[in-house]
Amino acid sequence: MNRNKDHDSYIKYISVIDLIIKNSDEKNPITINQIQDLIYDKGYDFKIDFRIVKKFVENYNNYYEDTIIKTYKEGRNNYFYYENPNLDLMEAKAIIDLVYSSHFFTLKTKENYKKRMQDLFSIHNQAYFQKRLNLHVVKNENEQVFYQELEVITKAIKEKKKIRFEYQKPSLTFNEKHKLTELAPIDTVFSNNEYYLLCQGAKDPNTCIQYRLDYVKNVEIVKDSDVKFDDYQLNSFEKKLNNMTYMYGEGKIEVIELEFTPNVYSNMIDKFGKNIHPKKINENLYCVQVRHIINSTFYSWIIGFGGRIQIADNDVHKKQFRDFLMENFINKNNAD
User: Fold this and answer.
1) pLDDT in tens, 193-212
2) 210 domain-assigned
3) Is the pLDDT at 307 greater than 80, yes or no?
4) Closest listed residue to residue 260, CA positions, set 290, 292, 216
5) Residue 318: C-alpha distances to residues 202, 239, 249, 282, 314 (Å)
6) Which residues form the WYL domain (predicted)?
7) Which of 146, 163, 231, 292 is the most buried (most CB within 10 A)?
8) Residue 182 sits in which domain range?
9) Residue 136 within a domain
10) Strand partners for 253
11) Domain count within the chain
12) What would the pLDDT profile of 20-40 be if each residue is shown by its tens digit?
């Protein structure tokens, strides 16, 4: 009998607390009658009253040493609501927006993050996390493999060990062999909507090298290694990281055709996603049509490849690019 009584008390406690957390917030408090209705909706037939709920709430708050579930009386009704002590609603909203803006995470992973974040708040606030625009770019498809690699990397950073890995950038060459790289991992960071591994340079210990994390494969810890960074090196690494900048500007989305050499194929995927379909012009040149915002940032990105990526289609795009060069480089240099 005692076991059944303890079990029933446990079910009552869990049900009441869970229903308050999931169905209330500061703007949407819940009454005893509403809690009772929700209990019936769950298929339970036990009854509650104010005394029981008050006791459950006091025990819950005492455990957390804080008033997590608040109560007040207005008129004849006693109201209860849950106040999330860990995360503000708009903080959570901003985190989800950051996750969705990343080109690294798969759509499934983004949806999982959103669902977990929604579950931290009442049903009344879950609509705040809905996304209206689908800006997802298909790149990484096997997040489980990635997380396995990330787990090894973070373990090596924690244990201050070097790692050995293959850097498998996308290539138009089949069966390309990838050499093993052995370096000291510094940290993992998001930059330019991508996820990077930062490693200490092998030739210059005061510089760091960035690797796209979804291209880092077959990671293993070098057990007989020992990694230490002094203050000067950490300062140098931070300066390098601060230079991983991304420029924003005005413009509109247009279809544009680009020609590029095979050695920048991985950069094309970084920029436009995995679902591009390059056409081979000759052994040294490919072309592809893409949709992108055409602005000064885009032109600067093209310039950065020193001719290995060029605008190939209509005269309008070529003229706009020439005008950008004249205004920002040629005329400016002549004026200087």
Assistant:
1) 778 999 999 999 999 999 98
2) yes
3) yes
4) 290
5) 42, 36, 19, 22, 7
6) 150-221
7) 163
8) 151-242
9) no
10) 293
11) 4
12) 999 999 999 999 999 999 999
